[in-house]
Amino acid sequence: MNGVVFDFNGTLFRDSAYHETAWHTFIAQETDRVVTKEEFEHHVHGVNNHEALEYIFEKKLSKDMADELAERKEKIYRDMILALDNGNQLVDGVEEYLDFLVERNIPRTIATASMKNNVDFYFDFFQLDRWFDYDKVVYNDGNIPSKPAPDFYLKAAEKIQCPAAEVIVFEDSVSGIRSAFNAKAGAIWGVSTDGNNQMLLQSGVLAGVIDDFHDPRIYKQF
């Protein structure tokens, strides 16, 4: 394999619970709906905000309206992260693994359904420029079809100048795994969140599932 593409939320930073809480807070403020855990997993987790919002509001939304609503939700989320003690800690082993990739000059980037405001926040909060080129990050700019469409990972592979078939993808969501599979990624590793190992393995397309980035198997990919 010649390159690595990481999802961010839930993969490099275990924030799924905070996103879910922020979504439920936002939904309670803006609607009368109750979104179940199953609905959240399939229609919100790993899906870009515009599509998630249309699912929640059960109607089509203009880009401007979706962006405005999404920013309200994301501010709830960012305020939660800033209020955490030791909130700026990536998943165990991430820093060492990224250092390993940097030392070997292995091309790498992030493909995330997050909006630009959140990507800016992450780069500042986690000092991601130690490992990633901001200009190569693929994020939700409103023009890329949501995961599970392959576009996020195809664009990420293009950004690091690697054929998708030679790229390793790390993902924590069902929609993200399908996206990487649809992009014909060379290898897909699931990253367990909240004990969802079996659900990820049921996709039938993974090289394996890891609990953190200390797993020796991921170092043997190069």
Automatic annotation (TrEMBL):
SUPFAM superfamilies listed in its UniProt record: HAD-like
Keywords for this protein: Carbohydrate metabolism, Hydrolase, Magnesium, Metal-binding
Family: Belongs to the HAD-like hydrolase superfamily. CbbY/CbbZ/Gph/YieH family.
Name of the protein: HAD hydrolase, family IA
InterPro entries reported for this sequence: Beta-PGM-like, HAD-like_sf, HAD-SF_hydro_IA, HAD_sf, PGP-like_dom2
Signal peptide (UniProt feature, chain positions): none
GO molecular function list: hydrolase activity; metal ion binding
Gene3D superfamilies associated with the record: HAD superfamily/HAD-like (3.40.50.1000), Putative phosphatase, domain 2 (1.10.150.240)
Pfam families: Hydrolase
Cofactor(s) named in the record: Mg(2+)
